[in-house]
C-alpha cells in the first residue's frame, strides 16, 4: 500500500479544484426557474393521480 502524503494530496485537490467550471449567474437563474416549474408540474400530476386512485378506492369500498 502506498504511503499517504498530505502535502501531495492537498496539491492534487487544489489542481482538481482549478479545473471546476462554475455556472454563471444567468445559468443558475435559468436552471432554478426550470427546476421550480418541473416541481410544480410534477406536484400537480401526482395530485391528479393520487386523487384518481383515491376515488377508485372510495368507489370500490362503497360496493362492499
Automatic annotation (TrEMBL):
Q: Coiled-coil region(s) at which residues?
A: none
Q: Where in the cell is it found?
A: Cell membrane; Membrane
Q: Which GO terms describe its biological process?
A: intracellular protein transmembrane transport; protein secretion; protein targeting; protein transport by the Sec complex
Gene Ontology molecular function: protein transmembrane transporter activity
Subunit text: Component of the Sec protein translocase complex. Heterotrimer consisting of SecY, SecE and SecG subunits. The heterotrimers can form oligomers, although 1 heterotrimer is thought to be able to translocate proteins. Interacts with the ribosome. Interacts with SecDF, and other proteins may be involved. Interacts with SecA.
The reply to whether Ligase figures as a keyword in the UniProt entry is no
The text of the family note is: Belongs to the SecE/SEC61-gamma family.
UniProt cross-references to Pfam families, sorted A to Z: SecE
Q: Tell whether Iron-sulfur is among the UniProt keywords.
A: no
Fetch the PANTHER family from UniProt: PROTEIN TRANSLOCASE SUBUNIT SECE (PTHR33910)
Transmembrane parts of this sequence:
29-49
Biological role stated in the UniProt entry? Essential subunit of the Sec protein translocation channel SecYEG. Clamps together the 2 halves of SecY. May contact the channel plug during translocation.
- Would you indicate the residue range of the signal peptide? none
Q: What is this protein called?
A: Protein translocase subunit SecE
Organism of derivation: Novosphingobium piscinae
Q: Which InterPro entries match?
A: SecE_bac (IPR005807), SecE_sf (IPR038379), Translocase_SecE/Sec61-g (IPR001901)
Chief location of this protein within or outside the cell? membrane
As for membrane topology, the entry says: Single-pass membrane protein
